[in-house]
Amino acid sequence: MLRSFLIYLSKAAWAQNLIMSWGFAWRAASRFVAGTTLEDALRVVCELNAKGINATLDHLGEHTSTPEEAQQATDAIFTTLDALGADAGLRGNVSIKLTQIGLGLDETLCAENLERILARARQNRTFIRIDIEDTPYTDKTINLYYAMREKGHENVGMAVQSYLYRAEADLRRMMQDGTRIRPGQGRLPRTAG
Predict the structure, then answer these.
(1) Domain extent for 23
(2) Domain count, the chain
(3) Alpha carbon of 49 to those of 42, 44, 54, 78: distances in Å?
(4) Per the confidence metrics, is the pTM higher than 0.85?
(5) 3 state SS of 83
(6) Percent helix, strand and coil across the chain, each rounded to 5?
(7) What's the pLDDT tens digit per position in 5-31?
(8) Between 2 and 106, where is the model more confident?
């Protein structure tokens, strides 16, 4: 129950605005959020790189409700990819949520946006990590990932949400297929033996 509530809060724009306006809450969140602008994020990437750490950028937001919003999110991802590609010294990749680029609206629209993002990432010598989201989108997300791999896109991997009961089976399949994986939220399930 608590997990469901926290996931709900993570998606609520009003909750994000509230956290951003509370100084103490923003200080706690800023450990995980590089900033509110792309320039802030690039500065943090540079600082992390100087410490030998590669970075992952994620344009916050998900579940667009119109094709225009999905296009705006895609354009924002293009801007991030172009910024990373413009500075050969930056070591970072981009993490995306497919509901942000239209998965909840139209799977074909999402696939088109994803393919354009992967092509742009390749131009910028950048890697894309697709986040597996909530259960209603898990299979669609994994299927779109494999569809992109079948089209020859090698600059893509997955972030598996370990709080999902099916995470272990998904991880096993992806590891067999050579998927580059990053664990997401929660703890990995324990297995016997």
Answers:
(1) 1-33
(2) 2
(3) 10, 8, 6, 21
(4) no
(5) helix
(6) 55, 10, 35
(7) 544 555 566 666 655 565 655 566 555
(8) 106
